[in-house]
Protein backbone atom coordinates (compact mmCIF):
# COMPACT_ATOMS: atom_id res chain seq x y z
CA UNK A 1 0.00 0.00 0.00
CA UNK A 2 1.28 3.47 -0.89
CA UNK A 3 1.85 5.73 2.10
CA UNK A 4 0.34 9.18 2.22
CA UNK A 5 3.80 10.74 2.25
CA UNK A 6 4.56 9.14 -1.13
CA UNK A 7 1.45 10.55 -2.78
CA UNK A 8 1.59 13.68 -4.94
CA UNK A 9 -1.19 16.03 -3.84
CA UNK A 10 -2.38 18.47 -6.50
CA UNK A 11 -4.56 21.50 -5.89
CA UNK A 12 -7.15 22.65 -8.42
CA UNK A 13 -9.99 25.17 -8.31
CA UNK A 14 -13.57 23.92 -8.63
CA UNK A 15 -14.74 26.49 -11.17
CA UNK A 16 -17.11 24.00 -12.84
CA UNK A 17 -18.62 20.58 -11.97
CA UNK A 18 -16.57 18.96 -14.76
CA UNK A 19 -13.41 19.68 -12.73
CA UNK A 20 -14.19 16.67 -10.52
CA UNK A 21 -14.50 14.40 -13.57
CA UNK A 22 -11.25 15.72 -15.05
CA UNK A 23 -9.13 15.24 -11.96
CA UNK A 24 -10.67 11.90 -10.98
CA UNK A 25 -9.69 10.64 -14.43
CA UNK A 26 -6.18 12.06 -14.19
CA UNK A 27 -5.82 10.62 -10.68
CA UNK A 28 -6.75 7.15 -11.95
CA UNK A 29 -4.33 7.47 -14.88
CA UNK A 30 -1.41 8.56 -12.67
CA UNK A 31 -2.03 5.82 -10.12
CA UNK A 32 -2.29 3.18 -12.84
CA UNK A 33 0.99 4.42 -14.33
CA UNK A 34 2.74 3.93 -10.99
CA UNK A 35 2.75 7.54 -9.77
CA UNK A 36 0.78 7.84 -6.50
CA UNK A 37 -1.52 10.82 -6.95
CA UNK A 38 -4.51 12.57 -5.41
CA UNK A 39 -6.09 16.01 -5.64
CA UNK A 40 -7.76 18.60 -3.44
CA UNK A 41 -10.25 21.16 -4.70
CA UNK A 42 -10.32 24.80 -3.64
CA UNK A 43 -13.07 27.40 -4.00
CA UNK A 44 -10.70 30.10 -5.30
CA UNK A 45 -7.13 30.63 -6.48
CA UNK A 46 -6.13 32.83 -3.56
CA UNK A 47 -6.74 29.96 -1.14
CA UNK A 48 -4.94 27.56 -3.48
CA UNK A 49 -1.86 29.78 -3.64
CA UNK A 50 -1.83 29.97 0.18
CA UNK A 51 -2.03 26.17 0.38
CA UNK A 52 0.60 25.30 -2.22
CA UNK A 53 2.68 23.71 0.55
CA UNK A 54 0.45 20.69 -0.03
CA UNK A 55 2.28 19.80 -3.24
CA UNK A 56 1.47 20.81 -6.83
CA UNK A 57 -1.13 23.30 -8.06
CA UNK A 58 -2.82 23.77 -11.43
CA UNK A 59 -2.72 27.54 -11.65
CA UNK A 60 -4.14 30.29 -13.82
CA UNK A 61 -1.59 32.75 -15.23
CA UNK A 62 -2.37 35.20 -12.42
CA UNK A 63 -1.90 32.53 -9.74
CA UNK A 64 1.28 31.31 -11.47
CA UNK A 65 2.82 34.78 -11.46
CA UNK A 66 1.81 35.34 -7.83
CA UNK A 67 3.45 32.07 -6.79
CA UNK A 68 6.63 33.02 -8.65
CA UNK A 69 6.70 36.43 -7.02
CA UNK A 70 5.95 35.17 -3.51
CA UNK A 71 8.73 32.57 -3.74
CA UNK A 72 11.25 34.99 -5.20
CA UNK A 73 11.27 33.02 -8.44
CA UNK A 74 12.11 29.74 -6.69
CA UNK A 75 8.84 27.92 -7.44
CA UNK A 76 8.99 25.08 -9.95
CA UNK A 77 7.08 25.24 -13.24
CA UNK A 78 6.31 21.68 -14.31
CA UNK A 79 4.20 21.79 -17.45
CA UNK A 80 1.43 23.45 -19.43
CA UNK A 81 -1.11 22.63 -22.15
CA UNK A 82 -0.40 23.30 -25.81
CA UNK A 83 -3.53 25.47 -25.68
CA UNK A 84 -1.96 27.61 -22.92
CA UNK A 85 0.70 28.92 -25.27
CA UNK A 86 0.14 32.09 -27.29
CA UNK A 87 -3.29 32.89 -25.89
CA UNK A 88 -4.89 36.17 -27.03
CA UNK A 89 -7.66 38.54 -26.01
CA UNK A 90 -9.99 40.45 -28.31
CA UNK A 91 -11.42 43.93 -28.20
CA UNK A 92 -14.78 43.58 -29.89
CA UNK A 93 -17.06 46.47 -30.82
CA UNK A 94 -20.59 47.16 -31.91
CA UNK A 95 -20.64 47.97 -35.60
CA UNK A 96 -22.97 50.91 -34.94
CA UNK A 97 -20.72 52.46 -32.26
CA UNK A 98 -18.50 54.37 -34.67
CA UNK A 99 -15.28 52.72 -33.48
CA UNK A 100 -12.87 52.01 -36.33
CA UNK A 101 -9.61 52.45 -34.37
CA UNK A 102 -8.39 52.15 -30.80
CA UNK A 103 -8.25 55.95 -30.50
CA UNK A 104 -11.99 55.98 -31.07
CA UNK A 105 -12.53 54.09 -27.82
CA UNK A 106 -12.20 57.50 -26.17
CA UNK A 107 -15.61 58.70 -25.08
CA UNK A 108 -17.06 55.19 -25.39
CA UNK A 109 -18.22 52.49 -22.95
CA UNK A 110 -15.79 49.56 -22.69
CA UNK A 111 -17.09 46.43 -20.94
CA UNK A 112 -14.45 44.31 -19.18
CA UNK A 113 -14.49 41.06 -17.25
CA UNK A 114 -13.70 40.38 -13.61
CA UNK A 115 -10.76 42.22 -12.09
CA UNK A 116 -8.85 38.93 -11.61
CA UNK A 117 -9.33 37.78 -15.22
CA UNK A 118 -6.08 37.86 -17.17
CA UNK A 119 -7.75 37.57 -20.56
CA UNK A 120 -10.83 39.77 -20.05
CA UNK A 121 -9.41 42.65 -18.03
CA UNK A 122 -5.83 42.74 -16.77
CA UNK A 123 -3.99 42.20 -20.05
CA UNK A 124 -6.47 43.84 -22.45
CA UNK A 125 -6.26 47.07 -20.43
CA UNK A 126 -2.47 46.78 -20.26
CA UNK A 127 -2.10 46.32 -24.01
CA UNK A 128 -4.57 49.13 -24.74
CA UNK A 129 -2.53 51.49 -22.54
CA UNK A 130 0.55 50.52 -24.54
CA UNK A 131 -1.37 51.41 -27.71
CA UNK A 132 -2.09 54.89 -26.33
CA UNK A 133 -5.62 54.49 -24.98
CA UNK A 134 -6.24 56.96 -22.13
CA UNK A 135 -8.60 55.36 -19.64
CA UNK A 136 -9.44 58.72 -18.11
CA UNK A 137 -11.35 59.19 -21.35
CA UNK A 138 -13.02 55.76 -21.46
CA UNK A 139 -16.11 54.72 -19.50
CA UNK A 140 -15.27 51.26 -18.13
CA UNK A 141 -18.19 48.90 -17.57
CA UNK A 142 -16.79 46.17 -15.29
CA UNK A 143 -18.35 42.78 -14.57
CA UNK A 144 -16.78 41.37 -11.40
CA UNK A 145 -18.42 37.98 -11.75
CA UNK A 146 -17.04 34.83 -10.04
CA UNK A 147 -14.17 36.63 -8.32
CA UNK A 148 -11.51 34.22 -7.11
CA UNK A 149 -11.87 31.98 -10.16
CA UNK A 150 -9.54 34.21 -12.25
CA UNK A 151 -11.89 34.15 -15.22
CA UNK A 152 -11.96 30.34 -15.48
CA UNK A 153 -15.74 30.17 -15.62
CA UNK A 154 -15.92 32.63 -18.52
CA UNK A 155 -19.04 34.14 -16.92
CA UNK A 156 -17.76 37.71 -16.87
CA UNK A 157 -16.85 37.42 -20.56
CA UNK A 158 -20.38 36.28 -21.34
CA UNK A 159 -21.58 39.31 -19.36
CA UNK A 160 -19.40 41.50 -21.59
CA UNK A 161 -20.85 40.03 -24.78
CA UNK A 162 -24.39 40.34 -23.42
CA UNK A 163 -23.81 44.01 -22.57
CA UNK A 164 -22.63 44.62 -26.12
CA UNK A 165 -25.58 42.80 -27.66
CA UNK A 166 -28.02 44.75 -25.50
CA UNK A 167 -26.41 48.11 -26.21
CA UNK A 168 -25.17 48.69 -22.65
CA UNK A 169 -21.58 48.90 -23.93
CA UNK A 170 -19.93 50.02 -27.15
CA UNK A 171 -16.88 47.78 -26.92
CA UNK A 172 -15.72 44.86 -24.80
CA UNK A 173 -12.76 42.68 -23.84
CA UNK A 174 -12.98 38.89 -24.07
CA UNK A 175 -10.52 36.03 -24.37
CA UNK A 176 -9.96 34.12 -27.60
CA UNK A 177 -11.55 30.94 -26.24
CA UNK A 178 -14.89 32.45 -25.24
CA UNK A 179 -15.03 34.46 -28.46
CA UNK A 180 -14.48 31.36 -30.62
CA UNK A 181 -16.89 29.21 -28.59
CA UNK A 182 -19.66 31.81 -28.63
CA UNK A 183 -19.25 32.34 -32.36
CA UNK A 184 -19.37 28.59 -33.00
CA UNK A 185 -22.52 28.31 -30.88
CA UNK A 186 -24.20 31.02 -32.95
CA UNK A 187 -24.47 33.37 -29.98
CA UNK A 188 -22.68 36.29 -31.66
CA UNK A 189 -24.40 38.42 -34.30
CA UNK A 190 -21.51 39.10 -36.68
CA UNK A 191 -23.47 41.94 -38.26
CA UNK A 192 -23.62 43.67 -34.86
CA UNK A 193 -20.35 42.71 -33.10
CA UNK A 194 -16.92 42.49 -34.74
CA UNK A 195 -13.27 42.29 -33.68
CA UNK A 196 -11.43 45.61 -33.55
CA UNK A 197 -8.14 44.48 -32.01
CA UNK A 198 -6.31 41.28 -31.05
CA UNK A 199 -3.74 41.51 -28.28
CA UNK A 200 -0.19 40.18 -28.49
CA UNK A 201 0.13 36.58 -27.34
CA UNK A 202 0.54 35.52 -23.71
CA UNK A 203 0.60 32.21 -21.89
CA UNK A 204 -2.13 30.81 -19.68
CA UNK A 205 -2.17 27.99 -17.09
CA UNK A 206 0.77 26.18 -15.47
CA UNK A 207 1.47 23.36 -13.01
CA UNK A 208 3.40 24.93 -10.11
CA UNK A 209 5.23 23.44 -7.15
CA UNK A 210 7.43 24.75 -4.38
CA UNK A 211 11.15 23.94 -4.54
CA UNK A 212 10.66 21.81 -1.42
CA UNK A 213 8.77 19.20 -3.47
CA UNK A 214 10.88 16.06 -3.44
CA UNK A 215 12.73 15.07 -6.59
CA UNK A 216 10.94 11.70 -6.55
CA UNK A 217 7.51 13.33 -6.64
CA UNK A 218 8.55 15.94 -9.19
CA UNK A 219 10.09 13.40 -11.55
CA UNK A 220 7.18 10.99 -11.17
CA UNK A 221 4.64 13.70 -11.90
CA UNK A 222 6.48 14.98 -14.96
CA UNK A 223 7.10 11.48 -16.29
CA UNK A 224 3.46 10.50 -16.07
CA UNK A 225 2.18 13.83 -17.35
CA UNK A 226 4.28 13.80 -20.51
CA UNK A 227 3.52 10.13 -21.16
CA UNK A 228 -0.10 11.01 -22.00
CA UNK A 229 -0.79 10.55 -25.71
CA UNK A 230 -3.63 11.81 -27.88
CA UNK A 231 -3.50 8.54 -29.82
CA UNK A 232 -4.46 6.60 -26.68
CA UNK A 233 -8.30 6.70 -26.37
CA UNK A 234 -8.18 6.60 -22.56
CA UNK A 235 -5.76 9.52 -22.48
CA UNK A 236 -7.63 11.41 -25.20
CA UNK A 237 -10.82 11.53 -23.13
CA UNK A 238 -8.96 13.35 -20.35
CA UNK A 239 -7.07 15.61 -22.73
CA UNK A 240 -10.29 16.63 -24.46
CA UNK A 241 -11.94 17.43 -21.11
CA UNK A 242 -9.00 19.65 -20.17
CA UNK A 243 -8.89 21.31 -23.60
CA UNK A 244 -5.55 20.19 -25.04
CA UNK A 245 -3.89 17.79 -27.45
CA UNK A 246 -0.46 17.64 -25.80
CA UNK A 247 1.23 18.61 -22.54
CA UNK A 248 4.13 20.99 -23.18
CA UNK A 249 7.33 21.87 -21.34
CA UNK A 250 7.03 24.98 -19.16
CA UNK A 251 8.24 28.37 -20.30
CA UNK A 252 8.26 31.70 -18.49
CA UNK A 253 8.57 34.27 -21.28
CA UNK A 254 4.84 34.08 -22.00
CA UNK A 255 4.09 35.68 -18.62
CA UNK A 256 6.26 38.80 -19.08
CA UNK A 257 3.32 40.96 -20.17
CA UNK A 258 1.26 39.89 -17.15
CA UNK A 259 4.14 40.70 -14.78
CA UNK A 260 4.39 44.14 -16.41
CA UNK A 261 0.61 44.64 -16.20
CA UNK A 262 0.52 43.84 -12.49
CA UNK A 263 3.39 46.25 -11.83
CA UNK A 264 1.50 48.86 -13.86
CA UNK A 265 -1.64 48.29 -11.75
CA UNK A 266 0.35 48.80 -8.54
CA UNK A 267 1.85 52.04 -9.89
CA UNK A 268 -1.56 53.37 -10.92
CA UNK A 269 -3.08 52.42 -7.56
CA UNK A 270 -0.24 54.17 -5.69
CA UNK A 271 -0.75 57.29 -7.80
CA UNK A 272 -4.34 57.34 -6.68
Topology, please?
Elements lengths: L7 E6 L4 H15 L4 E6 L2 H6 L5 E4 L1 H10 L5 E6 L7 E6 L14 E4 L5 H13 L8 E4 L12 H11 L5 E5 H9 L8 E6 L7 E4 L5 H12 L6 H10 L4 E2 L7 H16 L1
Parallel strand pairs: 1-2, 1-3, 6-7, 6-8
Antiparallel strand pairs: 3-10, 4-10, 4-11, 5-8, 5-9
Helix pairs in contact: 1-8, 4-9
Question: What's this model, at a glance?
Answer:
This protein has nine helices and eleven strands.
Structural descriptors:
single chain; 272 residues; alpha/beta; 6-stranded mixed sheet; 5-stranded mixed sheet; 9 helices; 38% helix; globular
Your description of this structure?
- The chain is of the alpha/beta class and 272 residues long.
- It is built from nine helices and eleven strands.
- The protein has a six-stranded mixed sheet with strand order 2-1-3-10-4-11. Strands 7-6-8-5-9 form a five-stranded mixed sheet.
- Strand 6 (109-112), helix 4 (118-130) and strand 7 form a beta-alpha-beta unit.
- Helix 4 (118-130) packs across helix 9 (256-271).
- The chain is globular, with a radius of gyration of 20 Å.
- The model has no long low-confidence stretch (mean pLDDT 94).
